[in-house]
Amino acid sequence: MSIDILNILLKNVRLADEKLYEGYLEDYMNYLENLNGYFNVDGGLINIGEHKYGYVFGDIHGDILTLVTLLQMINFRQVIEKDDILIFLGDYIDRGRYQVETILFLILLQLQYKRNIILLRGNHEPPEWLLPYPHDFPVYLRSRFPDKWRDLYRDFLGIFDRMPHAAVSKNGVFFVHGGISIKASTLDDYKSPDREILTEILWSDPYDEDGYRPSYRGAGYLFGKDITSKFLSKNGLKLIVRGHEPCNGYVWRHNKKVLTIFSRLGEPYYNNVAAVAKIPLSPTLELSDVEFVTLSSDELPKV
Ligand SMILES: [Mn+2]
To answer: How does pLDDT run across 266-292, given as a tens digit for each residue?
Structure first.
């Protein structure tokens, strides 16, 4: 995908009339309702099948230029041809200038490649009882669709509620937006989580001590090294991969048992690097061979 195509895409998405937009949302809702036709799904937990590699994206927050550039850098069409998969860890909207375009683009991408893309839910794809701040998505919807934005927003909330919130691979990698729960000890607890556990999945962060404490974010917890170790060993898992936390592309924590990925640039974080992680998903591969594709602010194409 070239930057020209990005320009065409942005133009078309902007020109998309409400009918077109609603049509895609309806198709996507149907797709999510029948997700088990494409993935092995247990409630909101996806059991990832036989794929060699997953290309994993962290938060996007409306930065469609970085998203498209990273997709181009990993040669995403070839990724899909090889039957590898793309895994997005949530937070597609809020904050960025192209948030409406970003979520629509990802929805269209997933409708096109139904078996090779996973879009997990982030805390910015919120349940109605746990809205993040800032949550300016409705404001952007309203500016784009002055007459229909309330209906569209309602449709989006319905879609967010149906998005899967976690995935696990055959070689023991657990994917989630924020973190693990301080109480939920088995994978079963992540299939149909109650409000408390879902809050932790969407909001929690790792911290470099043992134990846990309430998060400075006002929802979720900071979970320690011991909680990570217990969760992994109890479930025969090896690694937690998550987003949620601004960093220069990626950062390892908890003795390389937790990997954070961040895939957007620009305000309000001003991180210099965005990244995609290439993670082995097959038990026949060495899990330690995680690779990164990185993009720094000054390499970002000018549109
Ligand atoms: Mn987040």
So the answer is: 888 889 999 999 999 999 999 999 999
